[in-house]
Design a protein that fits this description.
mainly alpha
């Protein structure tokens, strides 16, 4: 934790614009007890890249199925 305090003070002195980044880093360290939250965030982003388009496609197909007013995107 001393590392984060020194880093935060250095950021305040030399680059105050990076303070939100250091605060997010501190909160992640505080609540997880280590740097594992960085790996968890990377895995979450990768899964989101896969699952969000699938969710959007499913919503579009269900909208067109229930409305029956327009053809679904895969029939056009």
């Amino acid at each position: 934790m001393v590392f984060i305090i020194v880093l935060g003070l250095a950021v305040l002195k030399f680059a105050p614009a990076f303070l939100p980044v250091v605060l997010l880093l501190y909160l992640g360290l505080h609540f997880t007890g280590g740097f594992s939250f960085i790996a968890d965030g990377i895995v979450t982003v990768l899964w989101s890249i896969i699952l969000i388009p699938m969710g959007i496609a499913t919503i579009e197909m269900s909208k067109s199925y229930f409305s029956k007013k327009e053809k679904p995107w895969y029939d056009k």
